[in-house]
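Technical note accompanying the year-one report. For the benefit of new consortium partners, we illustrate the data format agreed upon in the data management plan: each record pairs a sequence with a structure-token string. No post-processing was applied to the example shown here.
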Amino acid sequence: MKRLDLFGSAAIDREAGRVGDLDFLVDLGDLPPEQYAETYFRLREALEKLFSRPVDLVTAASIRNPFFKQRLEQTKSMLYAA
């Protein structure tokens, strides 16, 4: 994993109890397709277990909607970078 950001309501609302799910943006780097998929699903599962709540895990390459991308960029907060 190269980078992990939190975005959306959880990134801007400090009252975490009010947030239903957590939204993360992940950069998994250049992995072979099989390893990419396995890493993606393991990370999502680990985050859900860690935070005891649903997780939406988005990859930068999957974002097509410019309005969503703009909102994501406005609210994201970096958690990890390699």
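Partners are asked to follow this layout when depositing records. Helices lie at 9-12, 33-51, 66-75.
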